[in-house]
Amino acid sequence: MKNIRFVVLAAAAGLVLAGCGDESGAGGTPSASTNPSTPIASLPSPSTAPSGLPLTVSRTGGFAGFNDQVAVGTDGIVTASSMGKGPSKCELEPGFLTTLTDAVKQVDWASVGVTKPTVRHPDDMIIAVAAGGGLARLDDPKLKPLVAPVGTLLTEATKPGSLCKPV
């Protein structure tokens, strides 16, 4: 269960930060130019909608070399790209959309801040979540309510199934 959670956490961070990774080219140590306080320019603007959406999740890195992006709109339409494949769209099942929205609302996005997650070790899989003007790794304790729903979202949106029907 811990491995699955780590994979899910790393996957979400990677989606927001497709360009984040080991930039040194050797030894798995991040280069000196990696700045953990560098903001991400493509963050959704702070949400004024009561839904807490839109939400963007990225999953990059890891041994498998993930490079996934998932964006959920206020209407429940998901745009996802996975492992370099073109974007696909699907619509979240209303019950799951409610679960995801409720989890997003539980996070105090103002206290999360906007910090570009950085590589912690070789083959680090980063799952980053951005919403309400905030950005953080999914393993940030402030994002705890999102761990399970984002894991499900990554599974469903990158390979649509019963919770995300193709549009």
Structural summary, described in words:
The protein is α+β, with helices and mostly antiparallel strands and 167 residues long. The chain has 4 helices and 7 strands, in the order H-E-E-E-E-H-H-E-E-H-E. The protein has a 7-stranded antiparallel beta sheet with strand order 6-5-1-2-3-4-7.
Q: Kindly, what is the distance between the CA atoms of the first and last residues, rounded to a whole number of angstroms? A: 32 Å
Radius of gyration over alpha carbons? Answer: 15 Å
Task: Please tell me what the overall shape is.
Answer: globular
From the helix content, strand content and strand pairing, which structural class follows? Answer: alpha+beta
In the predicted model, the low-confidence regions spanning at least 5 consecutive residues are: 1-50
Helices and strands in order:
Blueprint: H1 2-16, E1 55-61, E2 66-72, E3 77-81, E4 88-92, H2 94-105, H3 109-112, E5 125-131, E6 134-137, H4 147-158, E7 164-166
Helix pairs in contact: 1-4
Describe the structure concisely.
The protein is an alpha+beta fold and 167 residues long. The protein contains 4 helices and 7 strands; from the N terminus they run αββββααββαβ.
Essential attributes:
alpha+beta; 7-stranded antiparallel beta sheet; globular
